[in-house]
């Protein structure tokens, strides 16, 4: 049997199949879409790769002023902590990650004696930031933080205030940018 007869027979069966079951069904049987996908993969396989290995290569990622990264507690300009122990952030937290204990000071103001955030529970939703009437608790734009040992996941009041002190300029910049935009 010669090659021409084989090709003619295959074409005859393809035409008969096309007439009987339709072109869409024939495409499914011949795996046309699968073969097109393999063609795309084959072409991309031989192209030069452009992947950057962040953070070792390339530039810093652009971050929105509304990005919700590490949590921090802020202070007033005079150095006094902003938190008035209203416990709104604790009550609105859907993950129950915030624990606050407060007492009344000699001047009658309430201040926190304990302000803990469990970073394992925290889902960085920002509801605590929205609920705070004095902008005490904020989400910074710091995304490069990690917990390396068990027990380090609980951020205490002094740690949160330290984070707030370190990022205060950036926090103010992001708040201004968010309010302007």
UniProtKB/TrEMBL annotation:
Annotated 4Fe-4S ferredoxin-type domain residues: 74-103, 113-142
Localization annotation: Cell membrane
Binding annotation for [4Fe-4S] cluster 1: 83, 86, 89, 132
Pfam family of the protein (one): Fer4_7
EC number: 7.1.1.-
Binding positions ([4Fe-4S] cluster 2): 93, 122, 125, 128
Cofactor(s) essential for the protein: [4Fe-4S] cluster
PROSITE patterns the UniProt entry points to: 4FE4S_FER_1, 4FE4S_FER_2
Xref: HAMAP family: NDH1_NuoI
Complex formation: NDH-1 is composed of 13 different subunits. Subunits NuoA, H, J, K, L, M, N constitute the membrane sector of the complex.
The protein's name in its UniProt record: NADH-quinone oxidoreductase subunit I
Gene: nuoI
